[in-house]
Amino acid sequence: MEIGAHKVAMNAPSGVSELERLIEAGTFDPAAIVASIGKTEGNGGANDFTRGFATLSYQLLLARFLECSPEEVGRRIAFVWSGGCEGVLSPHATIFTRKPSSAGGLPGGRLALAIEVTRDIRPEEAGTMAQVEEVAAAVKRCLAATGITDPADVHYVQVKGPLLTPASIADADKRGKTLVTRDPNGSKPYARGATALGVALGLGEVEVADLSDAIIAKRFDLFSPVASTSAGGELKNCEVLLFGNSASASGAFRIGHAVLADAIDADGVRAALRDADLPFDCNPTRDDADRIAAIFAKAEASPTGAIRGRRNTMLSDADINYERHARAALGAVIASVTGDPAIFVSGGTEHQCAPSEAPIAAVVRV
Amino acid sequence: MEIGAHKVAMNAPSGVSELERLIEAGTFDPAAIVASIGKTEGNGGANDFTRGFATLSYQLLLARFLECSPEEVGRRIAFVWSGGCEGVLSPHATIFTRKPSSAGGLPGGRLALAIEVTRDIRPEEAGTMAQVEEVAAAVKRCLAATGITDPADVHYVQVKGPLLTPASIADADKRGKTLVTRDPNGSKPYARGATALGVALGLGEVEVADLSDAIIAKRFDLFSPVASTSAGGELKNCEVLLFGNSASASGAFRIGHAVLADAIDADGVRAALRDADLPFDCNPTRDDADRIAAIFAKAEASPTGAIRGRRNTMLSDADINYERHARAALGAVIASVTGDPAIFVSGGTEHQCAPSEAPIAAVVRV
Amino acid sequence: MEIGAHKVAMNAPSGVSELERLIEAGTFDPAAIVASIGKTEGNGGANDFTRGFATLSYQLLLARFLECSPEEVGRRIAFVWSGGCEGVLSPHATIFTRKPSSAGGLPGGRLALAIEVTRDIRPEEAGTMAQVEEVAAAVKRCLAATGITDPADVHYVQVKGPLLTPASIADADKRGKTLVTRDPNGSKPYARGATALGVALGLGEVEVADLSDAIIAKRFDLFSPVASTSAGGELKNCEVLLFGNSASASGAFRIGHAVLADAIDADGVRAALRDADLPFDCNPTRDDADRIAAIFAKAEASPTGAIRGRRNTMLSDADINYERHARAALGAVIASVTGDPAIFVSGGTEHQCAPSEAPIAAVVRV
Amino acid sequence: MEIGAHKVAMNAPSGVSELERLIEAGTFDPAAIVASIGKTEGNGGANDFTRGFATLSYQLLLARFLECSPEEVGRRIAFVWSGGCEGVLSPHATIFTRKPSSAGGLPGGRLALAIEVTRDIRPEEAGTMAQVEEVAAAVKRCLAATGITDPADVHYVQVKGPLLTPASIADADKRGKTLVTRDPNGSKPYARGATALGVALGLGEVEVADLSDAIIAKRFDLFSPVASTSAGGELKNCEVLLFGNSASASGAFRIGHAVLADAIDADGVRAALRDADLPFDCNPTRDDADRIAAIFAKAEASPTGAIRGRRNTMLSDADINYERHARAALGAVIASVTGDPAIFVSGGTEHQCAPSEAPIAAVVRV
Questions:
Q1: Which stretches does the entry tag as region RU B (chains A, B, C, D) (predicted)?
Q2: How many helices (H) and strands (E) does chain A have?
Q3: Residue among D57, D168, D230, D356 flagged as catalytic
Q4: What percent of the residues of chain B are helix, what percent strand, and what percent coil, each to the nearest 5?
Q5: Beta strand D110-117 with D239-246: parallel, antiparallel or unpaired?
Q6: What string of DSSP letters covers C141-192?
């Protein structure tokens, strides 16, 4: 396969004009679009509607080009949005295209992307081993689809899954089923945690023997360093986007990743760039930076309430949610290295790296 | 003179225990304290009372050690607080001590600090040339007190001055005086701008001929790159803290400064450290960082609403004030270079550097 | 004419299911819809995108029923949204239908509604007499369309108009035109004020001789007690919705209004209901309340910072905008009288009632 | 005993000038002050430092008048603050004085107030029956102290108790003790719930047989309709303030209470006033209102997310905490009935009234 990556700025959650221009200029075939991953300028919380507004706006635009219904666009293309452009973070989307290609066999491989969905996850399965196993199976299907044989070649796995909602809780009650929690917001850690463990299991990073319902969102020494998961009330099944370098892929991009020790770990940012085969001394030059196509990272407040021994106020602030503090900080640190504030930084790291650490991946033009 | 700098963490706006420990351990003589510059964990806005709470708490502690009234402590020691610990920023205070010393003549000089106050500024003078000239005179007195003859040896001038309040506006009305504005919050740019121009005039960075009431908070090509000013309703006069390197100073510290091109300018942070004679390749090592005693910087949202060509949402966000976005971003970038989140980052840069640029100063142990 | 009013709850800014149900149940003819006035659950600020999301969602739904494009729906139907459901305020829309009718001549008349638009207002005209006069002319066209001869029969005039945006400011600069202000947010009072004075002039509540560019957003003793105006960056022209009681109207509704002395003026709420011919002692019973079809009110923080001699913190709060405090308070007071939290309360009262007062209108089933 | 109640406005959390004036004017003897209950203008969350600032400021003022240390003032006088002046709520304190008096036997009795503290509550006891029983015993001591024999004469019991903090959790871990939760903020419902059940047990409103660790913050059909409890990290023991009408009390005040069905229950407000023997038709006149000395109420977001069948956004709002929405709404509704925005409205009603209901008490001049 051949993967293309195109970053488009957004002047609002409904701002699709830059993608429209690219398509009208013939930069790429809209029928080749398989996924979009981006940031919208909402608050990132339960009442952040900018994600839904952006999805609807992009579906309407692409329905026009693809001459199909917006719903059909939704079935063909995976839309992943993280709300919250704190600090310097800039609203944007990275559009991924995929074309069949017989080329390949390039040294170190090239960026490959596979997208697989699970069956619908029932409310009583959310945050349980049933969900872990469904995601693990989808991850394995992604490996096969990308032709990646060594899990070490996988650098970023984005999973979107359902969380519990008043409606799904009522449904489970009607059928007399028990749930991991009855608090919709409280179900997020379970939902994000179970899908992250599904990635870890699918990639062989954890042993199934170590897993059980009891350890989900509890035993945080079990994790995947390449998982990035989110949960949303609008979903019924899980959507898995697996990125890696594959010998059977051609194209202009490679991907790498690293682990961020904390929200100010500039060395971690540099390590991710180098892991994607972007060589530089000290810090990237303008020319080096021009080769960076996309950055995907998770930000989290340290559970200790401190970074490098200094207390911060992320967890005690009743005005600004801790995820917003964390995204503002990490987003600025990454941009200070790459020179581009249009990066994907989202929150919530249950079973994604060790506690207080976070994953970062970089897509770089060869 | 010999200047000492002691950074103390604060576990709350009233958290004085670390300073108490240092004094009880005999680390320095409380009678030598002349100033405190720190961050408190409020919102940084008009209803941020953490600054007043911190001042009262420190005055009560020091009144005990100095066996005088809290009011007397207030007269002896300058307290400068910036509210708002966004992102990784850590609540703390840097305590400055000053002792007479006949030593000096060291190559490049050593950190010197002088503190001078102006007469009370009448409401109708706030934001006008009258205030500019009073501050300029205080700056000149500071130069004399530090024995600094070349303004190029001045690296950081912190000024606190009054802003207009409902009470001071009423007083001016009673006396039939006109004001630069009748909006208390709207008077901040004038108050910060006039004191910054006072620094520029006192240091000879601008010509008095170019100055007039009409250009204050208007002609932003006139500025001081070493001024850092704030305005508060509790003040009647202006308090000037001038930091520089003086041949007549001894002690363990030197200061340097640089200009930040934007909120993600890590090179600017490194330049300030090097300007303070901290040499390093690439980025400071842990040992290099251990020599950094204090960082003082200003953060501002770019008036263009964009950084490096990427739009951000600082100015349009109705939930989080733009100054909070800017402090969160710059604070994290600085901490990613120095390794210490306990740094002084405040907002509002009228006539302090060119528009969208901001000043940064570093105090480094020799 | 015969006017219908249908209140629909919204489970999200995109929540159109209740209107869909009403139309599918044949409750009314979607082709008869002329306007929608509602509240969405955003922050009510410059970055509140819930209004645009709601408009797009309703246009898509109605395009399906009316078998036309969403753009065509936008041309046929006026959508007025106020963002910000603080306190108990409930997201909803009141859908107004209009049918021709030869009936009429009923005692006291019946609810009539006319909608007129002005020509596009150029940036340099925003907040000036040019805008005042265009709105006044549209108001007079509305009077003719409703057959209302006595302005005293007009109880509510909602006007949406443009505000200055970075784009429109740039356009004016290109043509060398001067503007009332260069601050987009700062243009809101001028834009809301000029359209409100347009209503006052159109209804003969002020003399044209007293009006000039200089008094707009300045001389607040000139106002209309029935105007409710808003400004949005998405508009180029002004849209006027005039509500009153007309002898030539039939239908089941009457409208009345009153003036709120402050944000806790329950007597003012009761006065508006009685003015719409809803009689009751003390407070409305459940049966009385069932006759209330819609409430439209403006909320504002008192410029004195106090209500009934007690200071409040609306204007000094840096975390929550004063308009949000005011809507939360007034919305709850109105709901405590009517028993229904689904009411329209928006902010900004320049030239709409005297300073610190605010307009309230009630639509009641006969 | 003879109880006095004096409401003082606060121009800031440190604003003690009005109390200073009253004392200097000889309005009452500062040595007679036993309690202060008030609102401060913070955010009401974990990082609201306005409560501590107000306590310190009042202790310093009274230490001057009482010629003792601020710590001694803290031992003599109970300070109860609720942070968060949303909507129209006005920062203030109601100062209660108590003098011995042989008078009494007045019809219906007069306002009596007793204050009792429990022993320190160990972390492992927080939110357990141990805490319930200690509070119940303190309530019984209060009944004896006020000479109230019939619990029906008790109308308001304010309890302040400890919550779990990182420090107290660490202490319990060191001693190998288990806790109801390890989440400091998550311990609030347990802490507030256990102290409320302590009130219910002390007043005989619940049977001890129905109580156990398992039902605390779970079985909400067990409650006291006159309890108002809060939890703070600064406390080690529980402080109980019991208000009722006693035959052995003299003085100018009586107290009454009612239950609020929801945040817009104006009838509930009127019922509380009438229960305190303030008679009026419809709504209180200005003269009636002048007899109201203080209002104490709890505000809570409805667990259903709706009021009177209309959805509100209190629980889903990530920008403004639900307690702030609820206080803004209820505070305005109460003020619309009493005409005075200086009222005590706080959040969190576990085991205080039935779910979604809330207590309200009124102190009225005879």
A1: 110-247
A2: 9, 14
A3: D230
A4: 35, 25, 40
A5: antiparallel
A6: HHHHHHT--SGGGEEEEEEEEE---HHHHHHHHHTT---S-S-TGGGHHHHH
How distant is the alpha carbon of residue B255 from its chain centre?
Answer: 14
Amino acid at B86: E
Distance between CA atoms of residues A347 and B210, nearest Å: 50
Q: How far apart are CA C16 and CA D162, in angstroms?
A: 47
Q: Is the pLDDT of residue C232 over 90?
A: no
From the candidates A39, A160, A188, A298, which is the catalytic residue?
A160
Chain A residue set in contact with D, beta carbons under 8 Å: 43-48, 166, 305, 313, 316-319, 321
Report the distance separating Cα B259 and Cα B263, nearest Å: 11
Residues of chain A with pLDDT under 70: none
pLDDT in tens, D206-260: 999 999 999 999 999 999 999 999 988 888 999 999 999 999 999 999 999 999 9
Element (DSSP H or E) covering residue C365: strand C358-365
What angle do helix axes D17-24 and D50-66 make, rounded to 10 degrees?
20
Alpha helix positions (H), chain C: 17-24, 50-66, 70-76, 129-146, 166-174, 188-202, 266-275, 286-290, 322-338
Q: Is-contact B336 B53, C-beta < 8 A?
A: no
Q: Supply the DSSP string of D179-190, one letter for each residue.
A: -S-S-TTTHHHH
| C44, C155, C294 from C242: Cα distances, Å | 23, 8, 15
Residue B43 has phi, psi (to 5 degrees) of -95, -5
Site of tokens 């057959």: C147
- C135: Cα within 13 Å, side-chain hemisphere: 39
Nearest alpha-carbon partner for A327 in A162, A83, A96, A114:
A83
Q: How far apart are CA B128 and CA B114, in angstroms?
A: 24
Q: At A128, list the tokens.
A: 């349980």
Distances in Å between the Cα of D103 and the Cα atoms of A303, D3, D34, D107, D153 are 59, 12, 20, 12, 18
Residues of A with CB under 8 A from a CB of C: 12-14, 41-42, 47, 49-50, 52-53, 56-57, 319
DSSP string, D326-362: HHHHHHHHHHHHHS----EEEE--TTBSSTT-EEEEE
pLDDT digits (tens, 9 = 90+) for A141-193: 999 999 999 999 999 999 999 989 888 998 999 999 999 988 887 888 999 99
Q: Residue C272: exposed, middle, or buried by beta-carbon count in 10 A (0-12, 13-18, 19+)?
A: buried
Nearest of A223, A219, A239, A242 to residue A231 by alpha carbon = A239
Q: Are the C-beta atoms of residues D189 and D350 closer than 8 Å to each other?
A: yes
| Structure tokens given for D5 | 């109640």
Task: Report the length, in residues, of chain B.
Answer: 366
- Range A127-146 burial, b when 16+ CB lie within 10 A, else e: bbbbbbbbbbbbbbbbbebb
DSSP state for residue B125 in the 8-state scheme: G
C311 is in an annotated binding site: no
Residue D293 annotated in ligand binding: no
For residues A3 and A243, what is the distance between their CA atoms, to the nearest angstrom? 10
CA-to-CA separations, D298 to B67, C231, C264, D243, in angstroms, rounded: 45, 37, 19, 16
Task: Tokens for C59, please give them.
Answer: 């246009």
| CA gap D208, A196 in Å, rounded | 46
Cα-flanking dihedrals φ and ψ of residue A5, to 5°?
-130, 125
DSSP-assigned letters across all residues of B38-101 = EEESS-SSTT--HHHHHHHHHHHHHHHHHTS-HHHHHHHSEEEEEE---TT---EEEEEEEE--
Task: Looking at the complex, report in whole angstroms how far the Cα of residue C14 sits from the nearest Cα belonging to chain A.
Answer: 8
- Separation CA B217–CA B230 (nearest Å): 14
* ipTM surpasses cut 0.90: yes
pLDDT digits (tens, 9 = 90+) for C158-200: 999 998 988 899 899 999 999 998 888 788 899 999 999 999 9
